[in-house]
Design goal:
This protein has helices spanning about 35-45, 110-115, 145-155, 155-195, 200-250, 265-290, 300-330, 340-370, 380-425, 435-440, 450-455, and strands at about 1-10, 15-20, 60-70, 75-80, 85-90, 95-100. The chain is of the alpha+beta class. Among the domains are: about 1-115, Rossmann fold (3-Layer(aba) Sandwich), CATH 3.40.50; about 155-195. Helix 5 packs antiparallel against helix 9 (about 380-425).
């Protein structure tokens, strides 16, 4: 007897749990509240219909679970591509799964637990005496009277025994056909298992390839550190060479000459130029005064003296004008300025020596703060390490090629195994579903109870 129904991601129900009382259960309520969906969920558990529109929008699968009074939990699971069942027995931790269902659509274990099979009539239309909805009432309420009479007539013990006998014959024939099919299938599986004999060698090759890959990764992680060490060594070597060159240049330089002050020399040159100019002016003045005679002695009269004074003043002015004119006309050309290019070159050299002296002082200060250059390490060990590294890289390339070939072979075997496992469908040992990923990964576990049922132990 069903005590509770749990509906998850089924049509409009995200998760609904319904407790059932003893006897007949009737669902009532407004429209569009999910009544028909609950009835349809119970029918899906009993009959496993084919449509996949039962999955709620946005979900990956729909689940309907019925809890029976004896403690069993039967769950119907509907995915987009397939449907299956799970049976959780009382006291069990893991459910028994049923996938790859046959033509009947419902496993016999589920039928025997639910006991919700339809009743066959002579007209070929079975009657559902357990579930009914507003479109399909329960127990012949929408059937004609003749069908009701046939059902009541077939309910006698004799008719029931005949019906049971016919059902037994049909089930016996089906069991024989199924047994023959299973034997043929078992032979095919044995042949396919023989084809899987190389699997241990492949597994060993995979482990070896994994170890080689780990070693390759470890060496790859060490390569950047070695390259950084080589780069640092080259940088230190370049800095040492540059310091040695600078030291050699500093050792070749001698002591700079002492600089004389230039101010006295400039004053002496200016004084010489002034003396030359004054000497030239005095010579010209003396040359102008030499032709003149001595002036006569004037009579001491006032008028004449006044006139003479005026004449003398005028004559003096005229003479001064003439002297100035003569002096200006007879002046020699100005003296040539001494060539100063040598002095300028000397000043430039002194300035250059001063700059070089300052640079040398800075170099000397910098060099005094430097430590002794490090002694270069022995490069033989590094050369041996580089040679070994080259050999390791070549070995890595060979191992990568072998690993790639092994992977291709493994992918080919995996593809072949996947195709064969999909063709087999169920495990020949336990009867459970065979998933290629679980089988290749070693995760497929045999159910002990299922294995005993499959082999009849």
């Amino acid at each position: 007897m069903i005590e509770r129904i749990i509906v998850e991601n089924f049509m409009a129900h995200e998760r609904t749990e319904l407790e059932l009382g003893p006897g007949v259960t009737a669902l009532t309520g407004p429209n569009n509240t999910g009544k028909s969906a609950l009835v349809e969920a119970l029918r899906c558990v009993a009959e496993n219909p084919t449509p996949s529109h039962y999955i709620r929008h946005g979900a990956k699968e729909a689940r309907v679970t019925v809890v029976l009074s004896d403690g069993h939990r039967v769950t119907w699971i509907r995915k987009k591509a397939s449907a299956g069942y799970e049976i959780l027995a009382p006291g069990s931790e893991e459910p028994e799964s049923f996938w790859k269902l046959g033509r009947s659509g419902v496993p016999e274990e589920v039928r025997s637990l639910l006991r919700m099979n339809r009743v066959d009539l002579d007209d070929g239309n079975p009657v559902d005496v357990h579930i009914g909805d507003q479109r399909e009432p329960v127990f012949l309420l929408n059937r004609p009277d003749r069908a009701v009479a046939d059902f009541l007539a077939s309910s006698s013990e004799g008719a029931h025994l005949l019906s049971m006998q016919g059902a037994l014959k049909r089930r016996t024939l089906e069991a024989r056909r199924e047994s023959a099919g299973r034997e043929a299938r078992l032979r095919d599986i044995e042949a396919e298992l023989d084809a899987l004999a190389p699997l241990p060698d492949i597994h060993l090759m995979m482990e070896t390839a994994g170890e080689l890959e780990q070693r390759s990764q470890a060496l790859s992680r060490e390569i950047p550190a070695l390259e950084r060490l080589i780069a640092e060594r080259d940088t230190l070597k370049r800095e040492l060479d540059r310091a040695n060159r600078e030291r050699g240049l500093l050792e070749q330089l001698g002591e700079p000459a002492a600089l004389e002050p230039l101010h006295p020399l400039r004053s002496l040159i200016d004084e010489q130029l002034d003396l030359r100019h004054r000497s030239a002016f005095a010579a010209a003045y003396a040359e102008t005064l030499d032709p003149l005679a001595e002036p006569p002695t004037p009579t001491d009269t006032a008028g004449i003296r006044a006139v003479m004074d005026e004449l003398i003043r005028t004559g003096a002015e005229l003479e001064a004008a003439r002297t100035t004119s003569s002096a200006l006309a007879d002046l020699a050309p100005p003296p040539q300025v001494e060539e100063l290019s040598a002095l300028s070159k000397m000043a430039e050299e002194l300035t250059s020596y001063s700059s070089q002296m300052q640079i040398l002082n800075e170099y000397a200060t910098t060099a005094s703060a430097l430590r002794e250059p490090p002694q270069p390490e022995d490069e033989s060990a590094l050369a041996g390490l580089l040679t070994e590294l080259g050999e390791v890289r070549k070995g890595m390339e060979r191992e990568e090629k072998a690993l790639e070939a092994t992977r291709r072979d493994l992918m080919g075997h995996a593809t072949y195994l996947r195709e064969r496992l999909e063709a087999i469908g169920r495990c020949p040992t336990c009867g459970g579903e065979l998933e290629s990923g679980e089988f290749l990964g070693g995760e497929h576990a045999h159910e002990s109870g299922a294995a005993e049922d499959a082999h009849g132990y």
